[in-house]
Amino acid sequence: MSDPIDPTTLWIVIIGMAVGSFALRFVFIGLVGSRAMPGWLLRHLRYTAVAILPALVTPLVIWPAVTQGQPDTARLAAAAATLAVGFLTRNVIAAIFAGAGTLYALLYLLG
Amino acid sequence: MTSTTAKSFFWKGIRDSAPFVLVAGPFGLLFGVLAVEAGLGVVETMTFTMTVFAGAAQFTALQLMQEQTPTVMVLVSALAVNLRVAMYSASLTPYLGAAPLWQRALAAYFTVDQSYALSIVQYETHRDMTMRERMAYFFGTIGLIAPLWYGATLAGAVMGSQIPESWALDFALPIAFLAMIGPMLRTPAHIVAALVSISVAISAAGLAYNLGLLIAGLAGMMAGAQTEVMLDRRKQSV
């Protein structure tokens, strides 16, 4: 399904992410201090999580690597159940249980 | 006197963070397991988790590295997932910006979904807190969660390779992320951002270097921001 990760790549990513993540967190509280920030920037930052995470998950849901990229009923249904329960209950744990439950039930039933 | 109340705010932070134990524990465990499955050693996994300290971004980087994505694209994509902590940092600045630099640096490292969400509510509802009390509360919200996250990652990394394939752990990451996305869809603008992101991600899936992720993410952010502006305008004109 995937080749081993090259150690050099891994360490570049770890160090780069450590520095980059800290910079992202420090930039405002440490450097900007109490100065005001432009509204358009804050408005876009508000939607980062809700835009990037679906973009990351969508291909994994539709074309899973385990099935060699073939859409899979159990995984599609589990994804839909997770999202729906999370949206309706606002409860992350409930959503995870709904998704895992659906996945295991369908994997068992569809063999 | 001040130190006693600061201490009690630290403990309040610990107590308020208790429900997040149920998120951080399994999430840390899962990262440890998936990292070892991807071929990382225990030392590499723990260095990753302790220096970066950002669950969603770590999962993203792990996934992209397994797909043999170019290093620069792994970094850009993973940091894009983490852009929201910059927003948290911005939002906490009015409350914590006057603290000593070393405290702000430490708080920056510990700025994650849980510590931000709890602290901002506490500061907004208790306007009379002193700077020391605010900092004490902030570190309380992470005082239990951070050690738990490290410990759970270590446990996952140690037992990782013993988990059988029938557990379908390949799909644990999509489920964990989708479970986080659902509760985030609080306003029509958030829903539009997510829908645009999904449809662009599907149509741009064939692009090299996982560029589809960045394009879909940017499109979603712009759609969300634009929808917010339009809805505000409509509200004003009614």
From TrEMBL, chain A:
Domain of life: Bacteria
InterPro entries xrefs: Brnchd-chn_aa_trnsp_AzlD (IPR008407)
Pfam families associated with the record: AzlD
Keyword set, alphabetical order: Membrane, Transmembrane, Transmembrane helix
TM spans (from-to): 12-33, 45-66, 92-110
Protein name: Branched-chain amino acid transport protein
From TrEMBL, chain B:
The entry's keywords: Cell membrane, Membrane, Transmembrane, Transmembrane helix, Transport
Keyword Heme: no
Pfam families xref list: AzlC (PF03591)
Membrane-spanning ranges: 20-40, 135-155, 167-185, 191-224
Gene Ontology biological-process entries: L-valine transmembrane transport
UniProt-listed InterPro entries: Brnchd-chn_aa_trnsp_permease
Record GO cellular component, one term: plasma membrane
Subcellular location, record wording: Cell membrane
Keyword Cell membrane on entry: yes
Source organism superkingdom: Bacteria
Membrane-related topology note: Multi-pass membrane protein
Family (UniProt): Belongs to the AzlC family.
Protein name (database record): Predicted branched-chain amino acid permease (Azaleucine resistance)
